């Protein structure tokens, strides 16, 4: 008699809207694998040992660099930053000194990385999140030194659901996405690197799913990213229901009409991009334009500050790929935890509150000047009737004086549509002043939640505070929208919250005029908007703001949806 294995449901936090049914591929860190007994001996002379170790480090850096150049968006930026960590002269010097003092290469690498990890952790803020990248570099270097493969990802040969404690950006980059049906992790958060990268790639993802990392290889699981559920050993009926749900969502979200509520209130549905290849992928999509073009990759990928002439072709290509649709370009958002390889910088005690984004004008004003010169040239080279489709905005604006200064610089270079990001509570509270000299604002909901709730967006243990459903965050968005309404200036949202169908209804009700998200999230947001009037959206927004916490705010909105919509999303 065959034993019947009962189904088990693991509940986590979902990212995205997709479903998947596939066997588990259990992803484990490299340093947990058994070491090769044939590894080179550690009694070699120090100079030979140092040379071999430096070769291993460069091999890892080159491998990560290769993955970076075949990636896009945040993943590319994160990998390039990890490459910079691996190639940091301070790390090489410390490891070399330890080997000279008698430590083995493996021990020197492990102890040196631990030393820097302690420093990064003590610094706090986003820099502390680089510890994961440090350990990723350590694991790969040690693997090479001990004669093992750099990454177990090469063992993935069939369509699978990746289950792990957590994944570093380097782990994620090494995966063959054609074979990854979903990602499930025990740790992480909805604003962490794994979640953001999975969303950008359209991979169903569930984080903070207890016990998922212990599932055995080959265990069949059914993953629903929208509900955050992982069914272990699903029955035929459960699999059928999940696949039917996925099919129904696909059919219902085929519309390519412009974003609008049921009664015709327009809400522009835009896409976030990070590279020119992203723009190529959008050329045939139903996105009404680009709501966020992250330009950091042009800088992180360069050993020197790129000139206006080097930048211009990239901007021109994106504009060409989008035809007559608008493109919102964000100026360089770097500094602090996202260092530039060509700029010397001091380690900041709290990078999230340091010199980043627009604030780089305090130390490197030439970066903004060159970028605005390139963007201004792009605008002036377009036909007169298309110049206003290029919108340019600055990140990390805190005061009206900063907004005015940026607007003056941008317009001096011939840019016609100038805006700023609202990511800091001070900017939201004084939005009426900030908007006086600019044409539009775009809310970065991830950073706004981080600064409003005083919770590092990369700290996985604070995901409840980082939730964009927090009523305090909604209040700041509402204040910004009210300022925009009074001055007849558009207010967009380009954070991850724009991709949440329920939140899209609330944001629309608050007065947001455009929503920008990963392209795969657009169809479901378009569908749910088309089923609700603007008055209903306003009622839902009011209900969410009247709640005491994020969970009750979301539940309040959910409870007011009709049964057909709820069954579609469940």
Low-confidence stretches: 31-40
Mean pLDDT over the full residue set: 87
Strand share of the residues?
A: 5-15%
Q: Can you tell me the CATH architecture of the largest domain?
A: Alpha-Beta Barrel
Q: Residue share in helices? A: 40-55%
At the first level of CATH, what is the class of the largest domain? Answer: Alpha Beta
Largest β sheet strand count, sense and barrel closure: 8 strands, mixed
Oligomeric form: single chain
Under CATH, the homologous superfamily of the largest domain reads Phosphoenolpyruvate-binding domains
Q: What report would you give on this structure?
A:
The chain is of the alpha/beta class. The chain has 3 domains: 8-30 and 151-250, Glucose Oxidase, domain 1, CATH 3.50.30; 34-145, PtsI, HPr-binding domain (Enzyme I, Chain A, domain 2, Orthogonal Bundle), CATH 1.10.274.10; 266-569, TIM Barrel (Alpha-Beta Barrel), CATH 3.20.20.60. Helix content is 45%, strand content 14%. It has 22 helices and 16 strands. It has helices at residues 46-69, 73-86, 89-100, 105-123, 130-145, 169-174, 193-201, 236-252, 276-282, 297-300, 308-321, 365-381, 400-412, 425-429, 431-434, 445-453, 471-486, 501-510, 522-530, 534-545, 550-559, 563-569; strands at 8-11, 13-15, 19-26, 160-164, 180-185, 205-207, 220-224, 229-232, 268-273, 289-294, 326-330, 390-394, 417-422, 440-443, 491-493, 514-517. An 8-stranded mixed sheet has the order 1-8-7-3-4-5-6-2. The chain has an 8-stranded parallel beta barrel with strand order 9-10-11-12-13-14-15-16, surrounded by 5 helices. β7 and β8 (229-232) form a beta hairpin. α1 (46-69) crosses α5 (130-145), α18 crosses α19 and α18 (501-510) crosses α20. The longest helix is centred in the N-terminal third of the chain and has 24 residues, at 46-69. The protein starts with 7 loop residues before the first strand and ends with a helix.
């Amino acid at each position: 008699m065959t034993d019947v294995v009962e189904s088990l449901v693991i509940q986590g936090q979902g990212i995205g809207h997709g479903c998947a049914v596939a066997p588990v591929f259990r992803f484990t860190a490299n340093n947990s694998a058994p070491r090769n007994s044939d590894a080179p001996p550690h009694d070699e002379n120090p100079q030979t040992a140092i040379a071999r170790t430096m070769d291993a480090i460069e091999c890892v850096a080159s491998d990560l660099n290769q993955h970076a150049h075949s990636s896009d968006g945040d993943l590319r930026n994160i990998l390039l930053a990890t490459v910079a960590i691996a190639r940091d002269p301070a790390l090489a010097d410390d490891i070399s000194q330890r080997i000279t003092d008698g430590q083995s290469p493996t021990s020197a690498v492990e102890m040196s990385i631990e030393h820097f990890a302690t420093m990064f952790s003590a610094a706090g803020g986003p820099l502390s999140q680089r510890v994961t990248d440090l350990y990723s570099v350590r694991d790969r270097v040690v693997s090479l030194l001990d004669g093992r493969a750099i990454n177990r990802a090469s063992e993935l040969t069939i369509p699978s659901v990746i289950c792990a404690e957590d994944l570093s950006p380097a782990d994620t980059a090494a995966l063959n996405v054609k074979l990854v049906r979903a990602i499930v992790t025990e740790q992480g958060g909805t604003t962490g690197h794994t979640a953001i990268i999975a969303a950008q790639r359209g991979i169903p993802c569930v984080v903070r799913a207890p016990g998922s990392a212990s599932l055995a290889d080959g265990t069949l699981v059914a993953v629903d990213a929208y509900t955050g559920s992982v069914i272990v050993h699903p029955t035929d009926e459960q699999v059928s229901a999940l696949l039917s749900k996925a099919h129904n969502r696909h059919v219902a979200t085929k519309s390519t009409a412009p974003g609008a509520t049921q009664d015709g209130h327009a809400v522009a549905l835009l896409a976030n991009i990070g590279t020119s290849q992203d723009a190529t992928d959008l050329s045939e999509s139903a996105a009404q334009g680009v709501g966020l073009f992250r330009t950091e990759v042009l800088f992180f990928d360069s050993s020197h500050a790129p000139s206006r002439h080097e930048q211009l072709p990239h901007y021109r290509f994106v504009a060409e790929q989008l035809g007559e649709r608008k493109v919102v370009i964000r100026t360089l958002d770097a500094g602090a935890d996202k260092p530039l390889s060509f700029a010397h910088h001091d380690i900041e005690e709290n990078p999230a509150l340091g010199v980043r984004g627009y604030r780089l004008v305090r130390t490197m004003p030439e970066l903004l000047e060159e970028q605005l010169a390139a963007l201004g040239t792009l605008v002036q080279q377009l036909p007169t009737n298309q110049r206003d489709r290029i919108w340019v905005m600055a990140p990390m604006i805190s005061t009206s004086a900063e907004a005015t200064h940026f607007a003056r610089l941008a317009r001096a270079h011939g840019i016609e549509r100038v805006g700023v990001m609202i990511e800091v509570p001070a900017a939201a509270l004084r939005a009426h002043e900030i908007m006086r000299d600019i044409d539009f604002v775009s809310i970065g909901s991830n950073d706004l939640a981080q600064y409003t709730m005083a919770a590092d967006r990369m700290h996985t243990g604070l995901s409840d505070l980082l939730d964009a459903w927090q009523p305090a965050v909604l209040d700041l968005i509402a204040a910004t929208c009210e300022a925009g309404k009074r001055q007849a200036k558009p207010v967009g949202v380009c954070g991850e919250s724009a991709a949440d169908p329920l939140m899209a209804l609330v944001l629309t009700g608050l007065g947001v005029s455009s929503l920008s998200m990963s392209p795969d999230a657009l169809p479901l947001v378009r569908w749910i908007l088309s089923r609700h009037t603007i008055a209903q959206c306003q009622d839902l927004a009011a209900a969410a703001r009247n709640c005491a916490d994020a969970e009750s705010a979301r539940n309040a909105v959910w409870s007011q949806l009709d049964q057909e919509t709820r069954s579609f999303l469940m």
